[in-house]
Amino acid sequence: MDFVVNLLAMCVPFSVALLLASIGEMFNQRAGVFNLGCEGVMAMGAFIGMLVPFMIGKGGEVANYWNYLGILAAVMVGALLGLFFGLIVVTFRAPQGIAGIGLQMFGVGTAGTLFRHFVGGTQSVVGIPNSPVPLLSKIPVVGDIFFNHNLLVYFAFLFVPVAWYILFKTSWGLKVRAVGTYPRAADSMGINVNKTRYQALMLGGALAALSGAYLSLAQAKMFSQSLIAGRGFIAVALVYFGHWHPVQIMGGALLFSLAQTFQAAIQGLGINFPYEFAVMLPYVLVIVVLSFTSRNQTTSPSALGKPFNREIRT
Amino acid sequence: MKMSRTFKFVYKLGIMLVAALAALLMASIILWMIGADVSQTFYTICFLPLTKTLHMTEVLIRAIPLCILALGISIAYRSGIINIGAEGQMAMGVLAFTAVALAAPDLPRPLLLPMALLAGVLGGGLWGFIPGILKAKLKVSELLSTVMLNYIAAQFYTFCLRVLMLDPAEKMTGSGTPQSMRLTANIELGRLSGRLHYGLFIALVLAVLVYLLMWKTTFGYKMRAAGSQDRAARYGGINVSKYLAISMIISGGFAGLAGGIEIAGVHRRAIEGVTNNYGFSGVVVALFGGLHPAGIVPASFLFGLLIYGSTLAPTRVGVPANIVQVMQGLIIIVIVTAQMVLSNKYLEARMCRRWNALFHKQKEVA
Amino acid sequence: MEHITKRFPGVLACDDISIHVGEGEVLALVGENGAGKTTLMNILMGLYQQDEGRILINGEEVRFRGPEDAFAAGLGMVHQQYMLVPNMTVTENVALGYQQAWKPLKLDLKMVRDRVIEISEHYGLQVNPDAYIWQLSVGEQQRVELVKTLCLGARFLILDEPTSALTPQETDELILLLKRMKDELSIIFISHKLNEVKALSNKVTILRHGKVVFNGETDDYSPQEIAALMTGHEVQLPENKEPDMHGAPALVLKDVCVRSDRGFLALDGLDLTVHEGEIVGLAGVSGNGQRELAEAINGLRSVERGTITFFGVNLANKNPYYVIDHGMGYIPEERNVEGIVPPFAIRENFILKDSDRERFSHLSFLKKKSIEENAKRLRDDFDIRCPGTSTSAGSLSGGNIQKVILAREITRAPKFLIAVYPTRGLDMGAIEFIHRELLKKRREGIGILLVSEELDEIINLSDRIAVIYKGKIQKVLPHAEANRRNLGILMAGVNEDE
Q1: Measured between alpha carbons, how far is B73 from A32 in angstroms, rounded to an integer?
Q2: Which CATH number characterizes residue C146's domain?
Q3: Do C19 and C162 lie in a common domain?
Q4: How far is C47 from chain A (nearest CA, A)?
């Protein structure tokens, strides 16, 4: 029983990085842009997030609010990278898949370069402490699983209904959906297709960077060049898995983080099982899940991956 | 509207120059941020390796796997599938190669070396086949599946080196570096100078073969048709799924071969980090080479230069070697962007009118 | 609009066009495909910016940066291709442009819904505000388009070929409706169907190759006079007047059931026979299974039930290669992405179906010389206008692309030909050329299945006419018995025999 509770209590915070990045990617894709550079944006977010408190504290302890300044900086860099990607794929209409790979290499490379220069080697940071929710965290089992985490975890899960509301109940969400499904119609109604896509990309980039900063400041409490380890790509896959819907994406994020925690749990139990195979598990899961979900994608935004050009008739 | 040749030339050159400058500028910004000497860094990365023979051989031994990988990637790309899984396919090729070499160390070289290389091809081909068939049959995005297979292959690779193929000497000393024992001399490729090995010729021959395959045979014709417009290819009676899967087997096979050659020519044992991010660099080389062997050969030399030059950067100018990844990312972005701008007829027409207005005003009046 | 000029790469779409519409007037803008009508209207709506010229409303010059400015000025347009997001409701689609409902933090859908109901009641346009667009028929979608435009406050309505996807009966209803509406609105009506122009408009402006060639009062001219002005010369499209000479059954479909991409039965027990040496026209509003039928025959779509017998061989669930190998020729609906490989050279496109054959390759090495010779010959025979045989096919105009496809399909000496919307969007010259080639093939004894939505084309060319509705053949009429009226009724799903 303790084992299961521990597993679930680990699973919830582990899912946050995937959840935030994936919700961000969902906004990108709902607006018709496929951003494979998520991994790179996450790497930048993770690095910037830890850099700010690291520099301020000169490698030592810092007050907690500096961590949040780091997060803010990361979010801004993420939005900037989203803007940059918009310039490439929205304004210049470059093919999104390969441009995303470019962004990924650029992001991971830049984070690595700056990290080597400013930090040098692996350095742990104090990071964001847990903030148990008063009363609720005292509930047996449930308290440990849901209410004994850091603030970002609560934020991420609260953001799921917010994202749903934005997407389905606000005029901006309406625009995003129209632009990703039938940009020509949106255009004929006076909606600025490219501007909407830029906005979605900035939101997506900000969320991906937030997810990266969560990894470095709250989960691992350090930065290393292999910190992201494909989570950005898994986040993209999760969007497909979750059928472009925030709630289903949350389910997917929890499922995948369970696969990740499983690996840690096995080691914790001292079972003699080659850990490489445990590490593989989430990646294998992605392929399996995609194999089952890719064939009938009727719900996908139909203009996904297609640049919009008003003057070219289709 | 008439477009003069001069205009077209100036226009294309202008866009390419602007693109190159944009990439340089952005790389410079990163360098400036870490307080590096920008011009010195570019000199170290791009020119210093050309000044010594030893450096040149090191550049070439990096160009060899890049060239072979990029050729394979270009075949897949032309067939409509973006293979960013060459990293994993190369690792699987190395494993297969090493397994054969470890299993039959006593076979004579003329038998063992081809066998081991073939095993490398098969290992990589199998790893390429998985995303190929998943895309062909189940429409799984190859961008995601190949990346995932990279991570899986990397874990499997570590597992093999750590457990199955671990050098007995490492067990004795207990230092625990995960690497295989030094392989038999019967799998070694001869060397020309320094560490430069005969793999160079294999790469060049493969370039010619790829050209013939893709542009001179019906097989290549069909693969290109499937890649350019799959609906039209299907309409024309071409089995698109089949060619997708085959192109990925070939692409993976090339990557596996590159892995085998890398072991046979350079390391002579399976070591950690053998793939050295070559799989991703290969994508850049393939795109930079215009997805054509005639472009890929020089492009692989150029990127061999960048990759080797960046290893000199930390000691010479204090710039982390990761800078090469930044540059590669920027180059990809700039290439695909410049291609789109070049093919934008609207922009071209608009610029042409400006051009004409600038230079031919008097003529029109006259 | 005065002196409007708009250039596209290689094309002058509008060349110094001026038009004028008064309050309560209906102007018909007439012209062939590619004459510049739609471009002109897109400029009026602020979707394109003119290179030269100006737009005046009530004597004041206006400059629209986008459609929202045009809406604000009281303009509204119903595009030929409906601008409705399929997976949204009617209300949501209207809300896309209804900025009053864009509250911060909330989209006031109730307000939009009320407005939709108000407008639809006022004009007698029945729509269900909560229906998803994909659930609606083409006619219903058009009503939604009208309601949407009116909800946004349009007092000046632009209709771009509003009848092109409607049955003749739906067209009549629409014209009645517009006649009622013109008391309150000014209308520009784009069409190339002259009877509709006569029925509805007070004034007519004719465009040809981007220029205004005629302005006048509709009542003063006959449809024939307008037609002559529209095409610039008397085009007499060829007609199938030759005697019936059909031979043995070539293609026999029995009880064919096929699913669409969305998973419903697009063909639901379809039976049809085409003989050698006859043209069978398949009439119907598009989306009733025509595409799926052509794809099923050609091995591009799996067949759930039934047989497709082609000279004694069952083609159901065979691959395209097998079908081609048995002598099927196919002019596909989407010529730009299916009929050609756009980046490939013209000469490469000519061998799309034959790269394996000894004629063009030996031991799987391509024969460069014979490919080039073949390309030159076809280019000359079919009058394909191109800089050279190495030009990429995708850069050609629609008419020339269609000629490339036609040349390839016809010269492969097929035993049968399926032509799907072969003349859609082409100019009269190209249409005439294609019609002549089809009739020539018929004379050679080849059976042709002609799928079209242009009733004139079908009536002109076919020996027999089959009407398709919801995946079934409603009825097959011999040429002599078919006319626009009875075909229209059948296309609407009404079978008077029953």
Answers
A1: 27
A2: 3.40.50.300
A3: yes
A4: 7
Nearest to A109 among B82, B163, B326 (CB): B326
pLDDT value for B365: 43
Partner-chain contact C83 A298, CB within 8 Å? no
Please judge whether A190 and C95 are an interchain contact, meaning their C-beta atoms are less than 8 angstroms apart.
no
Q: Which residues of B touch C338 (CB under 8 A)?
A: 229, 231-232, 235
- Does some domain include residue C15? yes
Are C477 and C445 in a shared domain? yes
pLDDT over 70, % of chain A = 97
How much is the pLDDT for B93?
A: 97
pLDDT digit string, tens, across residues B76-90: 999 999 999 999 999
Query: What ipTM did this prediction achieve?
Result: 0.92
Q: Which residues in chain A have their CB less than 8 angstroms from residue B329's CB?
A: 40, 102-110
The order of strands in the sheet holding C303-310 is C265-275, C249-259, C303-310, C313-314
- To the nearest whole angstrom, how far is the Cα of B348 from the nearest Cα of chain A? 14
Please check whether residues C220 and C329 belong to one and the same domain. Answer: no
Q: What is the C-alpha R_g of chain C?
A: 24
Chain mean pLDDT for chain C = 88
The mean pLDDT value for B340-351 works out to 82
Question: Which residues of chain B are within 8 Å of residue A229 when distances are taken between CB atoms?
Answer: 151
Burial of A299 (0-12, 13-18, 19+ CB in 10 A): exposed
Cα B247 versus chain centre, distance: 16
DSSP three-state, residue B93: helix
pLDDT of residue B303: 96
Task: Match domain A2-128+142-293 to its CATH number in 1.10.3130, 1.10.3470, 1.10.10, 3.30.1380.
Answer: 1.10.3470
Per-residue pLDDT band at B364 (split at 50, 70, 90):
very low
Dist. CA C212–CA C300, nearest whole Å: 44
Q: Is residue C334 part of a domain?
A: yes
Helix orientation angle between B5-33 and B323-342, rounded to the nearest 10 degrees: 160
Q: Where are the beta strands (DSSP E) in C44-117?
A: 52-57, 60-62, 75-78, 102-103, 106-107
Are C289 and C471 within 8 A, CB to CB?
yes
pLDDT in tens, C190-249: 887 778 888 888 888 888 888 888 888 888 887 777 777 776 666 677 888 888 888 899
- C362 and C282 in a single domain? The answer is yes
My answer on whether C305 and C432 are in the same domain is yes
Question: Residues of CATH 1.10.3470 domain(s) within chain B?
Answer: 50-319
C105 with A186: Cβ contact below 8 A:
no
Check if the beta carbon of residue C469 is closer than 8 Å to that of residue C486: no
pLDDT of B8 higher than 90: no
**Considering the entire predicted model, what is its pTM?**
0.91
Closest by Cα among A11, A13, A37, A10 to A24: A37
Please determine, for residue A42, whether its predicted confidence score (pLDDT) is greater than 90: yes
* Of the options 2.60.40, 1.10.3470, 1.20.120, 3.30.450, the CATH number for the domain spanning B50-319: 1.10.3470
Q: Which of A62-76, A112-126, B218-232, C222-236 has the lowest mean pLDDT?
A: C222-236
**Number of domains comprising chain C:** 2
Q: Mean pLDDT lowest for which of A188-192, A285-289, B193-197, C394-398?
A: C394-398
Q: What whole-number percentage of chain C has pLDDT above 70?
A: 97
* A240: Cα separation from own chain's centroid: 14
Mark whether C373 and C263 lie in a shared domain. Answer: yes
For residues C249 and C295, the answer to whether their CB atoms sit within 8 Å is: no
- Chain-chain contact of B234 with C320 (C-beta, under 8 angstroms): yes
* Per-residue confidence (pLDDT) for residue A311, from 0 to 100: 67
- Which structural domain, as residue segments, surrounds residue C453? 249-491
CA distance C305 to chain A (A): 22
Q: Mean pLDDT score of chain A, rounded to an integer?
A: 90
